Amino acid sequence: MKYGVLGALTVTGSEPLVLRPRERSIVALLVINRNHVLSTSRIVDELWSSQPPESANNLVQQYVSRIRGQLRDRGDDAAAESLRTCGPGYLLSCDDADLDSARFESMLDDARDALAKRRHEAAVRLLSDGLHMWRGAPFLDVQGMPTVAAEACRLEEQRLRAIEERLDAELALGRHTGLVSELTALVAIHPFRERLRGRLMLALYRSGRQAEALEQYRGTRRMMMSELGVEPGYELRRLQEAILNSAPNLNAPESVVARWPVPAQLPSCIGDFTGRSREVAHGCEVLRGDRRPGRRRSLPVLKLVGKPGVGKTTLAVRIAHQVRRDFPDGQLFIDLEGLGPRPLEPSYVLERFLRTLGVPAADLPGDVEERRECFLSLTADRHLLLVLDNCADEAQIRPLLPGSAGCAVIITGRQSLAGLEGARHLVVEPLGPEEAVELLSRVSGHEPAVSETRTAAEVVRLCRYVPLAIRIAGSMLAVSPAATLDGVAGRLRTAPLDELAIGDLSMRSSIRLSYERLDSRAQRAFRRLALLQTSHFADWICAAVTGEDITYAGRLLDHLAQHHLLESVRVPGGHVRYFFDGILRAFALERAHVEEPADVRHAVGAIGARPVTWSGPSDRAPAHVLNPVL
Question: Would you say residue 534 has pLDDT above 80?
Fold first, then answer.
């Protein structure tokens, strides 16, 4: 349940709640006192002041019951349970992340921390984002209660302070000229806020308008003497003297370049991104965590792993764009080329990062350890998001992780990276059937007619619901006037790897990158297992077709599964069986016919022809299978 008080009161679950005036008032009180018991007598005093009706307690109970009823009617049972009766009153359980004013104040704390460290660009972003959360005066549609009025005044003061601090940060960045009109309007609305008056005088002076700056002071003094009978404060008087004397310390910074560069390296999101709502939400939750000062204890690291073409990078970029405003010091993106013949060395990646973050080439440390130490120092107080795409292994990743818990990292790769400490693991699966058809329609620009629905479903099934394969099939339909769903489906049945290639997109090339990263023994197992006629197999089958002992054969199968070249399933008895995805098996068969001699292919086929229960639950192989024939 989400609560909004920076404007009219809103309560939103699966859909917004429609509250009556008294119900809004009670919700406002509960939100202000969230996670603490609010007594019924206190609610009565706030609602009716000194003249409550005799049935006041019963009325409060009815109002709360109606609020809970709305939640339950919308299917939000968990939200209804968050508002419960506790002893003599009521308790609303509400995380700070679910209340807009708490999120706003958390951003203020982060911004003030950035200002203290002279990271003005980061402070401007945080404060601007926080101020954009405001929809109007706090608790706009809740009146007549002292507690709510006091909280509204407190929040409004926080808003004005946030505006003043943002203006200070922008002035420090040399943006005085563009601030004059905004400051003029703010001074008209808040004529007695001397800090705003001072900032307007300073912006005018730095814009070469010294006379207007001094006139601002004179007008302020006349107003304050006339209406309040007092002189302007010491700070404003001192600023006026400094402007009169053209004090050098008033000059704008010589360079308006921020002290710390703010990288923005994220690739653009693809326009036809489809589905993945749960994965995106989970990824955002992992990366954001609890961002309140002092709450986060460790660096959030999200690993996206999965088979070739499943859309790991696309999902990583989508998640990164969703959370980028939470990382105002910038976003770094790099393809580590982990599947290529020469994955990028950590030393080279650190050099690129350090130069992006403002370290001159002449000051770059020489070796990887010194570069890592420099990188840790630079990121210690920053809120940076790193996307490390297409990684090779844990050794490539570890030196690239920042040291600050305020940063976050997204990693993509085809192997599990199980040795990476503290990372949250998300296996990116193929799309669901409906999402897959939707993606096919978006890419092709063609919504299947009713008569084509079954054929479209067949096309995405033959693509194994893998986004890259679906994208290729959809692109063929889009660019070729003669292409039809029936034709694509027919070619996918007979020659899937030939069909799934267009331009620089190719399922064969994508799978080959993973295959070529395997050692020779794993490649051999991958090829020969595809020659079997059985759908599932265990370690002793692998031992039979490769000539390895059973223990090592089991390791080979696990290794292939960790690289997402095989699937695995647990069967009754707790044993594990492995099997091929259809497109991966087609590639493995291609390699087998190129790289395996005919007699080996015949021998594996002979094993497959023997009366062995290949996918049975027992892990004890028949004797003739344990004697390798290869």
Answer: no
